[in-house]
Amino acid sequence: MSTVSRSRTLIIAAAFLSVASPALADRIDGEWCHASQSLQIEGPSIRTPGGSQIKGDYSRHGFAYVVPVPEPDAGTEIIMHLNSEEQMTLTRKKSDKPDETWRRCKVTS
Fold this sequence. Notes:
The chain is an alpha+beta fold. It has one domain (25-104). Helices cover 17% and strands 40% of the residues. It has 1 helix and 9 strands; from the N terminus they run H-E-E-E-E-E-E-E-E-E. It has one helix at residues 3-20; strands at residues 30-34, 37-42, 45-47, 53-55, 57-59, 62-66, 77-84, 87-92, 100-104. It starts with a helix and ends in a 5-residue tail after the last strand.
C-alpha cells in the first residue's frame, strides 16, 4: 500500500470514528433518570418529571425552567447542569431540598 493510500485510509477512518461517536454525549439533550422519575430534554423543549411538555432556557451543557401548574413545586425554578456525559445536577432555586444527581436513562457511550 502506498503512502498516499495509507493516508487516505487513515483520514477516512478518522472521519468515520468522529461520525460514529454518540451525538448527544457532550450535550444535556436526552432522557434523564433519578429514582423513579425521568425527564426528556430536546433543545429548548422539555418533558418534565410531572409529564408536562414546556419550553425552557437551553444551552449545550445546561437547562432551566419553571415548574408548571399543576405539578408539585409549581413556580419553582429548576436549574440543571451537565457534569459529565452520563451525569447532571438538578437544583431547585430558593428551596431547602438538596441538589439531585441525575443519570442518563440509556447509556450513550
